[in-house]
Amino acid sequence: MKRATLIGGLVLLALVPANAQVAVSRGSIPVASHVASAAATRTTPNVPVLGKPVARVNGAVLTDRDLLREMYLIFPYARQHNGFPKEMEAGIRDGALKMIVFEELVYQEAVRRKMSVAPLKLQRAEGDFRKQFSSQEEYQNYLKSEFSGSRERLREKIRRSLLIDALLEIEVASKAKVTLAEAKAYYEKNPAPFQYPESFAFQTISILPPEKATPKQLQEGRKRAEDALRQAKATKSYEEFGVLAEKLSDDDYRVMMGDHKFVDRAKLAPNVVQAMLAMQPGQISDILQVEQAYTIVRLNKHVLTGKMSFTDIKDKLTKELEAKKTESLRGALDKKLRRTAKVEVL
């Protein structure tokens, strides 16, 4: 997995999931379909931007402009909320600072190794970058605000991003590959995560009398439940029962067509389990009393205890193992580069 070339280091992306482990584990970032001029460096009320140094890495200065760009990559919804949430801001800032320091260390290592970028690759990357802008005017405004109108400074920033990607490809991405055989070995040596308990998939219609209900209110609730049962027994499908649940049920599941999805047997009331064990998928129970609630259940599926097959989970497992390996490799690289570096947080 690679950090997105160019865009991550230059402009604010519209849709990027937050990731608290950004310092060493943020993966690929999708290219934005549109970019607001200088969006990545506009000030928000709780994050003033002055071009002030925030860190030095072997003498190279990183500023609060670099920091803010990274903070928006971690939490791109800050503009919608007029800034970063107070309770999250410190953590976002810390993660962003670690990331920009890490990337500067990676860039300096690429330079030390005398790595280079082919002119044609640089030209293509610059062209791809410019395609994000909706007009030449928008591009020129960005160039002016970010690089004082200098195309050469932009090109150097792009070259820097490509070098970072290239070194991370060598030290992380290429080493993080997980073969099908490795995934299979992990699956066989670690059976617990792939076991699943006996569970039931079902829908409900629940009639809930008031708390501390009087005998009369309980009787009224029972009558409502009996009426609901007559209508439920007449339904012929998941959808028909679900529509009825939306109309009659008092519990929160009514907004989901009464659907509880799969629930572990151990988490269900004994009388509900007993009823569903005697049912076939598509059948509807009689009225079941769970505490004070009168509940009608439609069984959708009964699944016995078992183990997920490797065939079913191999793709997902391989991706998860690669993500875990990537995080570990990035962390190790970060520690290795810091060992001989002088990093000052200002």
Give a description of the structure.
This protein has 346 residues and is α+β, with helices and mostly antiparallel strands. The protein has helices spanning 7-10, 22-25, 64-74, 86-112, 119-130, 136-147, 151-173, 180-189, 215-233, 238-248, 270-277, 310-339; strands at residues 53-57, 60-63, 195-196, 199-207, 259-264, 288-290, 293-303, 306-307, 343-345. The protein folds into 2 domains: 7-183 and 318-345, Porin chaperone SurA, peptide-binding domain (Triger factor/SurA peptide-binding fold, Orthogonal Bundle); 198-304, Chitinase A, domain 3 (Roll), CATH 3.10.50.40. The strands form 3 sheets. The chain has a 4-stranded antiparallel β-sheet, with helices on both faces. It has a 3-stranded antiparallel β-sheet with strand order 2-1-9. Strands 3-8 form a two-stranded antiparallel sheet. A hairpin with a 2-residue loop joins strand 6 and strand 7 (293-303). The two termini are 31 Å apart. Residues 1-45 have low confidence and may be disordered.
CATH top level of the largest domain is: Mainly Alpha
What is the general shape?
elongated
Order of helices and strands: HHEEHHHHHHEEHHEHEEEHE
* CATH architecture assignment of the largest domain: Orthogonal Bundle
Number of domains: 2
Mean pLDDT: 84
CATH-derived topology of the largest domain: Triger factor/SurA peptide-binding fold
Count of helix runs: 12
Low-confidence stretches: 1-45
Largest sheet: 4 strands, antiparallel
Main sheet strand line-up: 5-4-7-6
A few lines on this structure:
The chain has 346 residues and is of the alpha+beta class.
